[in-house]
Amino acid sequence: MSREWTELELDALGETFNVGVGAAAAVLSRMVEGEVLLSVPELKVVDKCTALGSFGLAPTDRVCAVLQPYGGAIESNALLIFTESKSYDLVRVVVPDHLAGMQMGDLAQDALLEVANLVLNACLGAMGDLLECRLTTQVPMLLKGTAAEVMEELEGNEMMLLHMLFSIRHRDIDGYVGFLLDQQAMAVLQQAVARFLEAHL
Fold first, then answer.
1. Which CATH number is 7-200 given?
2. Rama region for 6: left / alpha / beta (φ>0; ψ in -120 to 50; rest)
3. Total-model pTM
4. Which of 158, 87, 80, 83 is nearest to 123 (CA)?
5. Which of 144, 161, 162 is nearest to 153 (CA)?
């Protein structure tokens, strides 16, 4: 069971996440050949219903999400989520021009998984390096349906939601990255952050 987070720990974790998503944004920028803009990362402990509001989603909104399980020092899931229309738009940016009109068939799904795999792994790698925690990824999964249906696929009810908004300049494409932790994973992460602070203060 984790204790209450101190303000300093939350700030340190927020900065760690900022480093991770900065690395992820660099990967995405190269893929889309455009500038990726990042919002200030936020850290919350919320239930699934509140998480939808944090993502700016209604329960009935159609979404595509890539769930990336990871393990090692911390076992949890990373999530990249878009509205269904935004996911189509993102795929069209990164695939060849002659595929620009395609719908979310197998090839488009593979492209979205590849985007998410690169982005989430960049983020996880940076977080692991900064916290000196080894994080290993598993095979990502594509989830489609209403926002409520996708959230129902995630284990547990309460989660620590580390999220930020990223958007691609000059294109109406945006989505969220989140990290979903149960109580055990939250406690391990909190210990890692405490060690990081002890080593650097």
1. 3.40.1550.10
2. beta
3. 0.81
4. 80
5. 144
**Do residues 167 and 148 touch, judged by C-beta distance below 8 A?**
no
Query: E-assigned strands of 85-157?
Result: 135-137, 141-146
| Strands (E) located in 98-184 | 135-137, 141-146, 158-168, 174-180
- Give dist(CA 175, CA 169) in Å, integer: 13
Q: Which amino acid is at 201?
A: L
132-191 per-position pLDDT tens digit: 877 888 888 999 999 989 988 887 667 777 777 777 777 777 788 888 887 788 888 888
* CA–CA gap between residue 154 and residue 72 (Å, rounded): 19
Q: Which two tokens stand for residue 157?
A: 């009810």
Task: Output the CA angle 90-139-137, nearest 5 degrees.
Answer: 100
Check if the beta carbon of residue 170 is closer than 8 Å to that of residue 49: no
| Domain regions of the chain by residue span | 7-200
3-class SS at 68? Answer: strand
DSSP letter at 170 equals T
